[in-house]
């Protein structure tokens, strides 16, 4: 099934009486991610936030989509997922959430996506979320490791 088919199926189920819940949203996100319909998944999640309220506002749904994006090398979309989460929470007068950022950063580092981890860390800190000290240390360690592993430029050694 493609992204449009998945969302049409959900709408049909709602018309038949399905009361959407966090688990049903999670299933939809998983199906959209498997179809590689990441933009549609983000649009769905943002719309569900407003349309369905609390069941669609669980941090774990944004984390699920963000991690799926990271693992599928859709880093730009992963960052947009976290930005959307921050924006939606702020629109409700809620504080920035550091837990989602921490988990997404952990996934990024496990995938070797240091620049994406850094971007998510920056977004979290800019929004006022507090991150534990391990985040800054892990990002610094990864950056130093990448610097050590980088090949020397030709002519940079005195041979």
How would you describe what is shown here?
The chain is mostly helical. The chain is 72% helix and 0% strand. The protein contains eight helices and no strands. The chain has helices at residues 3-15, 22-34, 38-52, 59-71, 75-91, 98-111, 114-126, 133-149. The termini are far apart.
Helical content class = over 70%
Question: What is the beta-strand fraction?
Answer: under 5%
Number of helices: 8
Q: Average pLDDT, to the nearest integer?
A: 92
What structural category arises from helix and sheet content?
A: mainly alpha
The shape, in one word, is: globular
| Rg for CA atoms | 19 Å
Largest sheet: none
Order of SSEs = HHHHHHHH
Distance between the termini: 59 Å
Number of strands: 0
Regarding quaternary structure, what we see is single chain
Low-confidence stretches: none
Summarize the structure.
The chain has 159 residues and is an all-alpha fold.
Secondary-structure blueprint of this entry?
Blueprint: H1 3-15, H2 22-34, H3 38-52, H4 59-71, H5 75-91, H6 98-111, H7 114-126, H8 133-149
Helix pairs in contact: 2-3, 2-4, 3-4, 3-5, 4-5, 4-6, 5-7, 6-7, 6-8, 7-8
Task: For this entry, give a set of tags.
mainly alpha; single chain; 159 residues
């Amino acid at each position: 099934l493609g992204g449009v088919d998945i969302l049409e199926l959900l709408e049909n189920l709602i018309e038949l009486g399905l009361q959407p819940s966090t688990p049903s949203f999670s299933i939809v996100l998983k199906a959209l991610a498997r179809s590689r319909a990441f933009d549609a998944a983000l649009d769905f999640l943002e719309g569900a936030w407003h349309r369905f309220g609390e069941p669609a506002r669980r941090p774990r749904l944004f984390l699920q989509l963000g991690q799926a994006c990271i693992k599928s090398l859709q880093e730009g979309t992963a960052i947009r997922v976290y930005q959307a989460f921050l924006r939606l929470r702020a629109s409700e007068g809620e504080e920035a959430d550091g837990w989602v950022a921490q988990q997404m950063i952990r996934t990024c580092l496990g995938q070797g996506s240091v620049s994406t981890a850094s971007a998510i860390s920056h977004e979290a800190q800019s929004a006022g979320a507090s991150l534990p000290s391990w985040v800054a240390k892990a990002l610094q360690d990864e950056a130093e490791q990448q610097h050590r592993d980088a090949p020397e430029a030709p002519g940079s050694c005195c041979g």
